[in-house]
Amino acid sequence: MNFLIAAACLLLGPPQEGALSESKQKELDRKLSAWFTRTAAKGNAVDLSWPRFGKLSAEEHAEVKERAWHAYQEGSLAKKLVGEFKKRAIKSGKYTMPFSLQKRGKRPADGWPVLIAMHGGGGVPKKVNDSQWEIMKKYYRVTNCIYIAPRAPTDEWNGFYTGYIYPLVDRLIRALHLFEEVNPDRIYLIGYSHGGYGAFSIGPKMADRFAAVHASASAPTDGQSAAENLLNTHFSFRIGEHDTAYGRLKRCRAFNTEIEKLKKENPGFYPVTFEYMPGKAHVDLGDWTRPVGMFKERRKPTPKTIRWKVTDNIIQNFFWLRIESPKKGMDVLATVSKNRIDLTTTNVEKITLRLPANFFPKNKRVVVTANGKRVYSGIPKASLETLCKTLEERGDPSYIWDREIEVSIPKREVKETQKRSDNR
To answer: What are the φ and ψ backbone dihedral angles of 174, each rounded to 5 degrees?
Structure first.
């Protein structure tokens, strides 16, 4: 259904007939256009009020989402992105990430799967990185997909795994949803060597964007590659027995130990695989067909248990959670059960919970606890503004939600015995 929302707008243009009356369609389209074309100076000063929104039928609600997506396609952000996408050069701030795009084989009925393949190099002259990019444009042997090879935005040693790469990858995925008939739940990330380090960093930080992630001939980066975040996302990493430079093999073994501990503590979660290659070094790991196995996986965009270990101040969204001002050291475990959401947090003061339709029936009470204390009890109100806001923030057909709960987390009380100990 999510693919159909986006594809219908791409192929058919503006929605015509539907469940809504003609007058309501016109009023809705006017409001949606105003929202998605507003300027920063206007802020959020667009009236999206609709008292009856929460009482819409399923057919009416589906039409609203379709019309919202079309308005988003015609909005200010899309107009900025379309030029970048056509030129195959995504921009964010002062950085530009060129990329190649091939349509291989035949598009599946439910939309193109997308493979984003990141090249080796890093910390070498431009011509070397350029040559590695050319190799990656045809390296992986896979068909019936859109094959994208991004060129690292710089020639720095960490060009695929530092702060400027994450907004670029986000904008690239957003552009794919806007301008290609892609399946939002079949986007895959893979990298070799320098690109593998990128997969080790981008994958856990943006695990909600991908169906599967693979890293070859690389290693995790301290403070950036949070194993905890892979609770629901398929992730694999391959390393050769003799690939010991920069502590790669040692770091991979340590990461695997951490993953095995998490698996033991969380049965049924952490679909992560360590692929140790005896006798191999840094090259020739035989991963040319690795995407074939990855393509069997599908993203689960609305898992009922999420672990989010924040490792920067850039990524604000993770599945159905949002932190407006993220900081390294924040940590959230969120679990949905019946009519409850239970949060266990560290260093988090405020968090927003977006409520997928399959979590709770509308007009039913929801209870939220944080660190054992009740912080919310009520009936979340569906609104057109929340629907538009989530669409604009994520640009992902699977992440359009119309209900949210903003929660303030009470500071944890220090036990009296600890207070006495601290005062000695």
So the answer is: -60, -45
Which residues are within 8 A (CB) of 397 and not within 5 positions of it... i.e. 6 or more apart?
2, 3, 5, 6, 69, 177, 184
Q: What pLDDT digit, counting tens, does each position of 82-139 carry?
A: 999 999 999 999 999 999 999 999 999 999 999 999 999 999 999 999 999 999 999 9
pTM of the prediction?
Answer: 0.93
* 3-state secondary structure (DSSP) of residue 342: strand
**Helix and strand numbers, DSSP H then E, in the chain:** 11, 17
Q: How many whole angstroms separate alpha carbon 3 and alpha carbon 299?
A: 13
Which of 341, 381, 332, 333 has its CA nearest to residue 359? 341
pLDDT digits (tens, 9 = 90+) for 52-89: 898 899 999 999 999 999 999 999 999 999 999 999 99
What confidence tens digit (pLDDT) does each residue in 306-322 have?
999 999 999 999 999 99
State how far the Cα of 214 lies from the Cα of 216, in Å rounded to an integer: 7
Taking the C-alpha atoms of residue 377 and residue 368, their distance in angstroms, rounded to an integer, is: 6
* Torsions phi, psi for 154 (to 5 deg): -140, 175
- DSSP reduced 3-state for 409: coil
Residue 89 vs residues 7, 114, 115, 152: alpha-carbon distances, Å: 23, 17, 17, 11
Q: Please tell me the distance from the alpha carbon of residue 307 to that of residue 297, in angstroms, as a whole number.
A: 20
